[in-house]
Every structure is written in structure tokens, then in C-alpha cells.
Amino acid sequence: xxxxxxxxxxxxxxxxxxxxxxxxxxxxxxxxxxxxxxxxxxxxxxxxxxxxxxxxxxxxxxxx
Length: 64
Hints:
Layout: E1 5-9, H1 13-26, E2 30-34, H2 37-44, E3 51-54
Parallel strand pairs: 1-2, 1-3
């Protein structure tokens, strides 16, 4: 069975690290973090995560 995935997208590395560590401790999900929203979109072409947590205001793209 495939391990469920949570994707976190945020341009702030401290936020990414904090959320990643919290979710690693509290869930059995695989956590994937992206500081660049375009890289996250590229990753999503081949992956269907269960949850996406995204910052709304980022330099290149918004979180929507």
C-alpha cells in the first residue's frame, strides 16, 4: 500500500521546516516540502497527495 503524502508549499524556510517536523512527529504521512511553488506544481504532475498546505502569498505564484 502506498504511503499517503502531504505537500507543504511556502517561501519561508522556517515555516517549511517547522511544519515538516511537526507533521513527521504527529502523522505517518510522507511529507514533501517545496519553497518554490513552480517545483511543487511539477511534482504534482506525477503525484496525488492527500493534503496540500500552501502559503497564500508567495513571490512567483499565489497559493491558490
